[in-house]
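Revision sheet: structure tokens.
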Amino acid sequence: MSYIIIIPTYNGEKQGIEDLLISIKNQSMPPEKICIIDSSSTDRTVEICKKYGCDITSIDKSSFNHGLTRQMGIDNNKNYDYAIFMTQDILLTDRNTCAALLSSFEIDDVSAAYGRQLVNDNSSFIEKISRHFNYGETSLLKSKEDIERYGISTAFCSDSFAAYKISDILSVGGFPKTDFAEDMLIAAKLILQGKKIYYNAEAKVVHSHPYSIKAEYARGKAIGKMHRENKWLIDTFGKAENKGQELLKTLTLFKKLLYIFQALPKYIGYKISKL
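Predicted:
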């Protein structure tokens, strides 16, 4: 089994890119190559990545696209079996994190797998609630037959820490051009082709970055735009609002009100962008 790691970067020095690279180098099952796609960082990101022997591709900041930039990483490495995507702000929890995630492909027809994301003590209330809801303690196998049961969550995936079978990505046309949720869009395409997505709760990373009100609003707008441009996703898997309602049902009244208050900027951005 050959695999590579692909990490899009931009000014990752203060976000812990060096700590991430150290945790990758210490893996019991190291990758064949660490591919960095850097969007013209102005800090020491590229220098740090060179220090750890990474393969670096530099692109203009304005040309970065969540889908196409990741597809660039795939297109440049078609001869490998698997690719693990990471973001520059995560940290692997132990030496077997990558091996645990890649073990997901021992299950028949699994094309993509994503790991559990843990928060740190400084995370906001809304982030702690959302991460716990989206990344539970129990692993989950999802297929086309689960759409009626899980709705849009069937296609949930996260490229902050996700692995893909490269040949299967290519078979569905690759990652699409999108400014948001390239992971969900490719997962949805794979599922509709009869493949399976696996949530591997044993493969854990720490990923925590509290958003400001402005950032939550912008995130909501990005989600709304993605849904507007990919109407097939909602038509096939169901509305995103259903996921939010499901989360709220798990909270006490006080936590429910607090969550709604903190999530309001994101919801407003989402609704405005869908108009």
